Amino acid sequence: MLEKALQKIRNRHFCVIGDVILDVFQYGEVHRMSPEAPVPVLDINRRLEQPGGALNVCNNLRSLDASVEIIGVLGDDFEAFRLEYLCEKAGVKKSGLLRDLRRVTTSKTRFFDGSKPLLRSDHEQRDPLPPHLEDKILQEIRRAFKTADACIVQDYNKGVLTPRIIPEIMRLAADADVPVFVDPKFDHVFSYKGAFLIKPNRTECEHMSGNKIAGHQDAEKLAPGLRKKLGCENLLITLGHEGMLLQTADAAHYFPAHKLKTVDITGAGDTVIAVLSALYSAGFSLEKAAEYANRAAAAVCAQPGVVCARPEMLLEHSSV
User: Fold this and answer.
1) Is residue 250 part of a domain?
2) pTM exceeds 0.85, yes or no
3) Domain holding 237: CATH number?
4) pLDDT, position 215
5) Which residues are catalytic?
């Protein structure tokens, strides 16, 4: 059944809307302190650039051989050119990536002394989009929804998903009968009413509910009320090393984390929503798609760096 679903994914087209990020990884070694200030000097020997934010979801979908297009905003800078190149390299359709001369492209640079994290520097601008760019974004969304099988919204509160754009996404998706999967952040989390599924993490759920989630039992108690409060059809709460909880209109389904050695959790949430939406669009029940998404998250966390889910990875762990 999984093999057939993976074949069907090749014929599915996804529209990903949200904040795009250039992730930069600088690796080196510290052998001395700076004579200018009491800080270590990092001798860099390797630099790695990867598409992050909404584009990491696109990369996961492309890794599963789906057709994907991204809708978002870049600045007019070197980082924008790098992200466009990375889109072309991965086969992500980038006609919906718009330029704003007054913005900077969001980038996050992580510095490592060997494998030890040393520092992270962020360069970003979180102002909401101006009206003329909102108009262009909505124009791209209308176009994309004519052919999309599903929409994934990745909100990192960087200004692309504004109070005007979010309800328009939901309205246009309803008109086009396109299911919307949302990975929210704090600012606009209650604006996605009508979404097919919303996927907050533990911290976001605690913020929304005002209650501490000590374990999956707490999440199970909160989930029915939170699903109604958010106004979504389904709620998926990711709980890190404890797995995740799916709350539908009828029942709660708990998926404990798989016992694989965790090396790096970076990008695991992006893998979850990509695998979940891909398998559901290919005909899996939501519960079965969530089960495989949980397995995929464990598999990517068992490898260093930002790793995308691959068909062979899902097949390998299909019997875990």
Assistant:
1) yes
2) yes
3) 3.40.1190.20
4) 86
5) 270
